[in-house]
Amino acid sequence: MDDEWEAGAAPWLRRQQPKTTYANEPNPVQCMFCGSHTVKRSASDRDADPGRLELYCDNQLCDAREMVLLVKRDGAEAIFRADVRALHLIDNGTMDVHAVFPPEVKSYTMSDLLADHGNEVERRMRKAPPVVD
Q: Is 128 helix (H, G, I), strand (E, B) or coil?
């Protein structure tokens, strides 16, 4: 097996684990955070994107659990990726994430929480009566 990786080539882990799995992966690799041999490709990992690898650690004691490996510089076109450009803007202080995406904070009064709104799900699921002309 060739140990070299070129831009656009399938990362080694995708060759080691050809399918994404929800259950036990027969070829787990070592987690770079907890050290257990429990890392597998995440179910959300996409084969068509060689510059982004989504991983999942099955170790219940691992604090990382879900991780993304993103190629920021590969000698080819990684610098043109939207996710790489966004990280560059955040890293150099050009973009303030909290200003661009302000956190949504909702607050309720006690009367809002205690109000009887009926069964909203049932109302949404119920079809409107036919219109009679």
A: coil
**Dihedral angle of Cα 118, 122, 125, 126, to the nearest 10 degrees:** -90
Lookup: tokens for 26:
């027969």
DSSP state of 7: T
Quote the CA–CA distance of 42 and 54 in Å, as a whole number. Answer: 5
Place of tokens 């050290």: 35
CA dist list (Å): 85 to 62, 125, 128: 29, 42, 47
DSSP 24-85: --SS-B--TTT--S-EEE-TT--TT-TTEEEEEE--TT-S--EEEEE-S--SSSGGGSHHHH
Euclidean distance between CA atoms 87 and 84, whole angstroms = 5
Residues of the chain with pLDDT under 70: 1-4, 116-131, 133
pLDDT number for residue 119? 60
